């Protein structure tokens, strides 16, 4: 554990709240919904996360900075799985692109709260009972097997959303960017946006059961854990908009994510006998995800060369791809 000065917590929260405010104000109306804007914002969030890692290095030293980058990279990698879920939820509820940013913004804000709960409770449990690390490792190994077997790109709906739709009064249509509307009979009902938001929150809680223990495999310092998680989560909206149109083409990505979870699980189990420093962990995680993405791109390229897409009808322009369609 590192001795964390109080002012560093203050700088962290000031940075997070400022970035959230800038993100919210920058996307009022229909601003920032294009793919180009999403690429720019993705770069901003990545730069912000790595810049804070530089501050961690300056204040806490190189080893702490390596732990931060490793934990940030784990959460960033596993965030790709979240993006699949976002796509499924928005498609199943027919949420238009113009309303997705608002849902994602509040979803990310809620994720920051729930991740704090998971991290501080998990750290307290590990500090009190050393055997909890083996429980976390087992959870990660089982989850790795499940992720390897299930291709999230083939999911057609979301269980949480399906359950909520059966138990909540919901309108069939989106009402601008409203989460709750009043019907003609005076009763208030949820809109698909509220259903999407609740679905995102419930799903993120389930993802936290995997991603938080994975981060514990590289450090048990609550400040490093939470700050790295927070800066990785902050970029989820932009990451989703960047990848939503191509997620279905990354056919081998879930194998890379399964490898990350499996590596984290093994690392926790064998830690008493074999310590893997943070820097090699970063290299292994980057290699696993990078190899799965490269393999997916090459497979997609082979398919394209072997089965060229049919030409559009004469005089008819192809329909542009949007982040909400895959």
Query: Would you list the SSEs in sequence order as H and E?
Result: HHHHHHEEHHHHH
Q: What structural category characterises the helix and strand content?
A: mainly alpha
Tell me the span between the first and last alpha carbons: 44 Å
Count of individual helical segments? 11
Low-confidence stretches: 308-326
Based on DSSP secondary structure assignment, what is the total number of beta strands?
2
Based on CA inertia axes, which overall geometry fits?
globular
Strand arrangement within the widest β-sheet reads 1-2
Estimate the helix proportion, in percent: over 70%
Q: Mind telling me the C-alpha Rg?
A: 21 Å
Question: Per DSSP, what share of the residues sits in E-state strands of 2 or more residues?
Answer: under 5%
């Amino acid at each position: 554990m590192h001795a964390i000065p109080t002012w560093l917590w203050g700088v962290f929260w000031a940075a997070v709240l400022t970035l959230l405010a800038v993100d919210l104000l920058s996307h009022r109306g229909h601003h920032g919904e294009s793919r180009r804007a999403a690429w720019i914002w993705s770069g901003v969030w990545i730069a912000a996360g790595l810049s804070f890692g530089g501050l961690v290095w300056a204040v806490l030293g190189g080893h702490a900075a390596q732990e931060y980058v490793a934990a940030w990279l784990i959460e960033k990698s596993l965030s790709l799985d979240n993006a699949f879920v976002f796509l499924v939820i928005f498609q199943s509820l027919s949420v238009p692109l113009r309303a997705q940013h608002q849902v994602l913004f509040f979803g990310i804000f809620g994720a920051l709260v729930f991740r704090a709960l998971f991290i501080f409770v998990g750290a307290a449990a590990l500090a009190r009972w050393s055997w909890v690390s083996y429980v976390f490792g087992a959870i990660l190994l089982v989850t790795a097997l499940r992720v390897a077997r299930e291709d999230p790109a083939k999911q057609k709906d979301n269980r949480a959303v399906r359950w909520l739709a059966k138990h909540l009064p919901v309108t069939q249509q989106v009402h601008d960017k409203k989460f709750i509307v009043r019907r003609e009979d005076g009763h208030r009902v949820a809109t698909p946006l509220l259903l999407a938001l609740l679905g995102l929150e419930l799903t993120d809680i389930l993802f936290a059961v995997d991603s938080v223990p994975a981060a514990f495999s590289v450090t048990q310092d609550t400040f490093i854990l939470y700050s790295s998680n927070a800066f990785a989560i902050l970029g989820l909206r932009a990451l989703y908009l960047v990848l939503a149109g191509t997620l279905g083409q990354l056919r081998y990505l879930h194998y890379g994510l399964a490898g990350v979870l499996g590596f984290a699980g093994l690392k926790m189990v064998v830690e008493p006998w074999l310590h893997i420093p943070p820097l090699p962990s970063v290299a292994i995680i980057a290699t696993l995800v990078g190899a799965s993405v490269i393999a997916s791109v090459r497979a997609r390229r082979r398919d394209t060369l072997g089965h060229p897409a049919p030409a559009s009808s004469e005089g008819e322009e192809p329909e542009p791809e949007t982040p909400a369609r895959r």
